[in-house]
Amino acid sequence: MELNVDYAVERLVSLLKIPSPSGNTKKAIDFVNEEFKTLGIRTYMTNKGALIATIRGKNQNKEVTLSAHVDTLGGMVKEIKSSGRIKFTQIGGYVMNTVEGEYVYIENSNNNLYSGTILTTKASSHVHGQETKEIERNMENMEIRLDEKVSSKKDIENLGINIGDYVFFEPRTTITNSGFIKSRHLDDKAGVASLLGIAKYLVDNNIKPKYTTNFFISNYEEVGHGASAAIPNKTFEFIAVDMAAPGKGQSSDEYSVTICAKDSSGPYDLELKKKLVNLAEKNDLSYKIDIYPYYGSDGSAALKSGYDIKVGLIGPGVDASHSFERTHKEAIENTVKLGILYLTE
User: Fold this and answer.
1) Which member of 221, 237, 254, 325 is catalytic?
2) On the chain, which terminus has fewer CB atoms closer than 10 Å, C or N?
3) What torsion do the CA atoms of 35, 337, 323, 246 make, to the nearest 10 degrees?
4) Are residues 190 and 160 in the same domain?
């Protein structure tokens, strides 16, 4: 299979530049929607704000659905301190030391952006000495220093910043000459880009999938209920395309597509897993099989919501998940190829 992965990587970079923490994903959804429409694929929005794009298949009596989530980690203004600093609450699951020192943007209700930095409340070693090292990195001890002349709660409020405003993390996206993609939010924008790559290949090569195929772009996965509703009624198989997590005790790497056998929600469908493994082996794809003890997916949300469907999980390996993430073009390429093979063979 001849595949140009540049399209998926280019769309990934564009998507990474669009902030989209859970609950504030419209701009990112709109971007993906326009990409599907440019490919000539019909789309519609769910009431919850997810996007579904559909390609008619040879068999229109049964459907398959592939999902990826556009929502990411982020934060929200929790408290405006009398000092002019901002206390935030987290969106999604991450630990504080992975965002300490990160550049952020706060978006107020008028869509104005204000830059800042996440710091501990005792960030200066010249002021606090050993306490700078010893202070516990938790929500109580973290704050945002705004890049404005502010020294009071009123100063912050005069900027139009209020409780509930969103905090965006700077993604710091970089592509290296060796093919690595470094960025926050590869979970799961790398999966969304993979779905776009699959769709473009089918359209460009005038290939009709075996079954009518839905691309489900969810927008609340990081908080647990992404694909819990609105999966198309005729779906009998559902493949979540989400990042794989390399690390100690794991088989996943940054160059392969991983087929997940089990995560914290339990085993994925055995026959579907076997089908995906056979496709990967038959077509000489670089693939891994792995298990994740601290992981859930759109497939998990769908099953917990009572959908009577077979569910699988695949995705590109992303190092340092929910931290300073990195993947490689080869992982995206292998993910796109496995998705195409699943839909056509």
Assistant:
1) 221
2) C
3) 170
4) no
